[in-house]
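Predict structure. Chain length: 298.
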Amino acid sequence: MFINTLLSKSRVSLAFIVLFLTGISIDANAQESSVGKETSDTQQSLVDLISTSERSVFSPTQQISKGRLDANANVMRAMYRIDGAQSVSLSGSPTQRSRAFLQEHADPLGLDASLLDLDLVREVSTEYTSHTTYQQFYEGIPVYGRFVKVNMNRRGEVTMVLNGYHPDLRLVGPGGVSPGISDQEAINRAQDYLDLAIERASDGELMVYPSESPRLVWRFLAWTTYPSLELEFLIDARDGAFVAVTPTNTHVHDVEIGADAVYGHSEISRVNSPSIQPVENQRRASGTGLVFDPDPLT
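Prediction complete.
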């Protein structure tokens, strides 16, 4: 369920942004005809990049007794309904207990029994449960999207494990984990290729991207002004090639309700046609929401 949910969200995000971008058109009354061509070229370049991006996907899993199995990798992607006596000591911290459990079950989970490539990134404890989250590392570099989560009950017994570990990870090509370009060069590459007005960008984070052919990448977020987008870029840290581009924001097409367009009691913007409007007529809306943390089954 965990893996299928991730894949489903990825597909929905990809389909949504492609529909949004391909649905953009320039108002026929635009004063500058060159704007239409430039926007068309930019959106087509972006659509092409998104559609050809490498995907860090998990193999399909099959349900077995008390878990889900990745048959291709021959590892358990989820273990649940873990009942009965556990040989792991219930003393110590949640981190100590969860690491002991992972070491004991390293083989079916496909883990390195030393757990040296798993770093604790989060520990949450309440009166009734404890949760630890580990991220996979490769030679000191974080692996993109690969986490192992362990849930425990109030007695300290492990009740569920969600396993995103990539077994037998090996980088492709020479150079090891030394980048050939800087993160700023990667950002410049994205801006120059797409001819996008990047308003700002996050600092680049060096990561290993576990696609079919794992690669060393720079990961960063970029916010553009025309059109207004938030994009996650993964740029090959050796040669500057695009590895993956993922839209991370959601766009709302307003519907006129009387004089104003209102969503959830908050005015977003006024759009009188599906055409691209001048930048000064666009508005960004910020808000808050609820998410499952660490997962919907906890």
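Summary: DSSP finds five helices and 16 strands in the chain.
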